[in-house]
Write a structure and sequence with these properties.
21 strands; 23% helix; 4-stranded mixed sheet; alpha+beta
C-alpha cells in the first residue's frame, strides 16, 4: 500500500487537507498513515442525520474501500471508541458530540447485486431502497419490506431492522464485519443472536457487507408490493419532516403509537421538538430543536405512558454521544 502524499489528500472546504500522518484534535492525537479515505477532525454531524441536530464527531472517517477501513482501524488499535453511521435515521446525536471515531461508509460500500440462487450481496452502505429495487429487478421476492426501512444495510443488520411483518433475521445468510481492531470476521444470523430490534453485535463493529436470501418471484408482483409499502409509509408517517423514524419499540402484544396516543401525547411539544400529529411514534424537529429537546421529549412521553398506561416504553432510536 502506498504512503499517502500531500497532493493525494482529499481537501476540505478550506482547501486544507483534513488529516496528516499525526493529526491533533483538541488534546487528542491520532497517529495514522497510508490511509486513502477522508479523515476529518471535529466533524459536524447534524447535517448527516435526519433530525438535523447534535454536535460534532471527534473524528469522522470515510474509508476509500474495505482494505482502507481495516488498515485505519488496525492502526487505531481499539484505543478510541468507534461508531458506524449510515443514513442518519433512527439516531439522536447528542449536543456534546460523539467521542472517538465515527465511520461513514460511502459509495464504495453502496452496492447491491444478485449472486445467484436468489441471494443478494449488499454493501454495508447500501440503502434499503437500493437493495429491494435490485432484488425486484432480479426477480427475488421476500426483500420488499426493506423498502420501508429508512436506513442502510449496516444499520438494519445491527439492529434487526424490520417493517410490515418481516425483519432482517428472516433473510440474513451472513455478514462481514470489521471489528474495532481492524480484524474482519464473517457472522451468521445465528451468531448475531437476533431478537426484536437487537443483535449481539459488538459495539464498534462495522457491518461492511451482508448476504440476504429471498425466493423466486415475479418482478411485477414484487414491484406492486414495494409500491404498496411506499404508499403506506407516505400516508401514515411524517416523512417530509426532520424526524428519526420510529421512536419506541412496540411492546409485546401492543403498538407504541397507540400507547403514546392514549397517554395524551399527540402533538406534545418541548422546546423545538414535537410528537408528530400524524404518527405518534415519531418525534419531529420543528425547526430549531436541540438534541436535548428531542431526547427530553421522548423521556417525557415515556413517563406519561408509564403513569397512564403502565407500560415502560423502550427506545428504538439510538442515542449516542455526550449530553
Amino acid at each position: 500500500m502506498k504512503h499517502v502524499q500531500p497532493d493525494d489528500w482529499p481537501m476540505n472546504d478550506s482547501g486544507m487537507a483534513p488529516f496528516s500522518d499525526v493529526e491533533e484534535c483538541g488534546d487528542m492525537t491520532l497517529d495514522v498513515s497510508d490511509i486513502r479515505g477522508k479523515l476529518t477532525a471535529k466533524a459536524p454531524l447534524a447535517k448527516l442525520v435526519w433530525f438535523k441536530s447534535g454536535g460534532h464527531a471527534d473524528w469522522l472517517f470515510e474509508p476509500a474501500d474495505l482494505e482502507d477501513l481495516k488498515n485505519f482501524l488496525e492502526q487505531v488499535g481499539g484505543r478510541l471508541p468507534v461508531m458506524g453511521l449510515g443514513l442518519g435515521s433512527n439516531l439522536i446525536i447528542r449536543d456534546g458530540g460523539v467521542p472517538g471515531i465515527v465511520i461513514r461508509l460511502g459509495k464504495p460500500f453502496s452496492i447491491a447485486e444478485d449472486i445467484g440462487e436468489h441471494v443478494m450481496r449488499c454493501g454495508g452502505g447500501a440503502s434499503g431502497i437500493l437493495v429491494s429495487s435490485t432484488a425486484r429487478d432480479a426477480g427475488i421476492a421476500g426483500l420488499e419490506f426493506l423498502r420501508g426501512i429508512p436506513g442502510t444495510v449496516g444499520g438494519f443488520v445491527r439492529m434487526n431492522g424490520g417493517a410490515y411483518g418481516r425483519e432482517v433475521s428472516d433473510i440474513l445468510v451472513d455478514c462481514d464485519v470489521v471489528m474495532p481492531d481492524g480484524n474482519c470476521v464473517s457472522l451468521t444470523a445465528q451468531d448475531l443472536e437476533y431478537s426484536y430490534r437487537h443483535s449481539a453485535l459488538l459495539d464498534g463493529a462495522i457491518v461492511v457487507s451482508a448476504r440476504f436470501k429471498g425466493e423466486p418471484g415475479d418482478p411485477t408482483v414484487i414491484g406492486a408490493e414495494m409500491d404498496r409499502i411506499a404508499a403506506a409509509r407516505e400516508e401514515s408517517q411524517p416523512l417530509r419532516t426532520k424526524t428519526g423514524g420510529s421512536t419506541f419499540k412496540n411492546p409485546e402484544g401492543g403498538k407504541a403509537w397507540q400507547l403514546v396516543d392514549a397517554a395524551g401525547c399527540r402533538g406534545l411539544t418541548l422546546g423545538g421538538a414535537q410528537v408528530s400529529e400524524k404518527h405518534t411514534n415519531f418525534l419531529i424537529n420543528t425547526g430549531e430543536a436541540t438534541s436535548a429537546d428531542i431526547e427530553a421529549l421522548g423521556e417525557e412521553v415515556r413517563r406519561r405512558v408509564m403513569n397512564s398506561e403502565g407500560v415502560d416504553l423502550e427506545w428504538e432510536i439510538k442515542r449516542v454521544g455526550r449530553p
